[in-house]
Design goal:
The protein has one domain: Beta-galactosidase, Chain A, domain 5 (Distorted Sandwich), CATH 2.70.98.10. Helix content is 0%, strand content 46%. It has no helices and 23 strands. A hairpin with a 4-residue loop joins strand 19 and strand 20.
């Protein structure tokens, strides 16, 4: 699969053990210009010990298509929509954090996968260092009273195979910001097909609440596969069993054939966990929830530890 990026702005960063390439937000030439995912921190590749953890997983590239994206990208949701969507009248505006101010059309309900008209992408600033990229977006929507200052830093640790994503969201408007956010974690470890070579581990006993598991199965704290997924097949479910402490935000994805794994930890309690995969990508999606009063700021952090082990394939 090939995604044509054209002249999309990008940056390369590196540590002693990791090399990464990131796409940078740009309303005109950015690799991703749809309205579902946060435009910052889109990682084209993340290399460690000859293994690549992120990359193209989709068959069709269009910068304004909701899922033409790669890497550990995030989506903010207020209920099932965006900030101010329910209150806005057709023709009015609402916000999606990390995207900007959008136009609400005449429609019966919010459409998660639709690309809405962008009224104002806000003001982005990007600062690149040899081992990190900082993204800052300022957005104000006078008509709704919502405004925010969003900051994300993708940083490679100097002496260990680790990537840290630091976030802060400051409410600079007049309205309460109530939102959840999850990282979609589009893992494509070495381009291996989703199947029995993969295992996803959690620190709690899993209960799958959906009936669309397909070839996936849960046992104790592990999700695995009975066979390789074919093109067009998927696995999807919500997972429960976690508690109210941040220690349960600890997820491992391993591929036994190539001997590569990643551990994802968060410093906030889990609010919800969803799992989705198709043949080309595997996605544990861990949600957190936040309520931010005007003038207040919320901070959270994700840590990705990369590791290898003896392959069994």
């Amino acid at each position: 699969m090939v995604a044509y990026a054209g002249d999309a702005p990008r940056a390369k960063i590196a540590s002693k053990t990791i090399q990464a390439e990131l796409y940078l937000p740009d309303a005109t030439d950015g690799y991703y210009r749809a309205t579902r995912f946060d435009w910052s921190g889109v990682i084209a590749s993340l290399l460690y010990q000859g293994h690549n953890y992120f990359g193209v997983w989709f068959p069709k590239y269009d910068p304004k298509l909701h899922d033409s994206i790669s890497g550990p990208v995030e989506e903010f949701r207020t209920g099932d929509s965006g900030l101010g969507y329910e209150e806005a009248k057709p023709g009015g505006t609402f916000l999606r954090i990390g995207v900007g101010v959008l136009r609400k059309p005449e429609e019966p309900r919010f459409q998660q996968f639709k690309t809405y008209e962008i009224v104002d992408p806000g003001k982005w600033s990007v600062q690149t260092k040899p081992d990190s990229v900082e993204f800052v977006q300022a957005v104000t929507d006078p008509s709704s009273g919502y405004a925010y200052l969003y900051r994300k830093v993708v940083r490679l640790s100097p002496d260990q195979p680790q990537m840290v994503i630091e976030h802060s969201l400051k409410n600079t408007g007049k309205q309460l910001i109530e939102t959840n956010v999850y990282n979609h974690n589009f893992f494509v470890i070495d381009g291996q097909p989703t199947g029995a070579d993969f295992v996803v581990k959690f620190p709690f006993n899993l209960t799958a609440t959906g009936d669309r598991l397909g070839a996936a199965t849960t046992r104790g704290g592990e999700l695995s596969y009975t066979r390789e997924l074919l093109t067009g097949q998927s696995a999807f479910t919500e997972l429960t069993g976690f508690g109210s402490e941040s220690k349960d935000f600890d997820i491992r994805v391993e591929n036994k054939k190539v001997g590569a794994g990643v551990r994802v930890r968060g410093d906030q309690p889990l609010w919800k966990v969803v799992f989705w995969s198709i043949r080309t990508v595997l996605c544990p999606e861990a949600y957190i929830n936040m309520k931010i009063e005007p003038g207040r700021e919320f901070h959270w952090r994700l840590t990705y530890d990369l590791y290898t082990f003896a392959p069994s394939g």
